Amino acid sequence: MSGHPPERPLISSTVFEQLIDSRKASEGCLSTPTQYFEPLISEVDAAKMLGLHPKTVQRLARRGDLPSVRIGRYWRFRASRLNEWIDVHSTCQPVNVGSQRTK
User: Fold this and answer.
1) Which range is least confidently modeled, 15-19, 60-64, 79-83?
2) What sign does the dihedral 56-92-85-42 (CA atoms) show?
3) In whole angstroms, how far apart are CA 91 and each of 9, 65, 85?
4) 44 Cβ contact list (under 8 Å, min separation 6)
5) What share of the chain is helix, strand, coil (3-state, %, to 5)?
6) Which of 55, 60, 82, 98 lies in the 20 to 30 Å Cα band around 32?
7) pTM, 2 dp
8) DSSP for 45-58, written as a single string
9) Which pairs count as long-range contacts for 11-18, CB under 8 Å and 24+ apart, including other chains?
10) 66 exposed, middle or buried (CB, 10 Å; 0-12, 13-18, 19+)?
């Protein structure tokens, strides 16, 4: 045994949890991190979601036209932000796939 008294936490865990819960409630956060963290998707998955080539997605991200996060040399995206981007940039006009235009 050493001559040091046992370490006592500065704040009890119950009080700490109450502080965290009150702060989260005031900020509108959810109680556990897994409930509000949205996994990031790659440019390949974002391209599939948007129906674009991955290089086009990279170019749009690099120019700042597409909501993205740069992590090292990789671009990552949140699917929810891409959905919002689609809503904002949508023309709301139907697409005629497979039909030919006549003059």
Assistant:
1) 15-19
2) negative
3) 58, 17, 12
4) 54
5) 45, 10, 45
6) 82
7) 0.54
8) HHHHHHTS-HHHHH
9) none
10) buried
For the chain, give the longest Cα–Cα distance: 95
In sign, the C-alpha dihedral spanning 79, 61, 57, 84 is positive
C-alpha 50: how far from chain center: 16
CA distances from 11 to 5, 49, 59 (A): 17, 47, 50
Count, in order, helices (H) and strands (E) of the chain: 5, 3
Percent of the chain predicted with pLDDT > 90: 40
- 20 vs 30: CA distance, rounded Å: 11
Q: How far apart are the first and last CA of the chain?
A: 94
Single out the residue of 78, 36, 39 nearest to residue 61, CA to CA.
Answer: 78
Select the highest-mean-pLDDT range: 9-23, 35-49, 85-99.
35-49
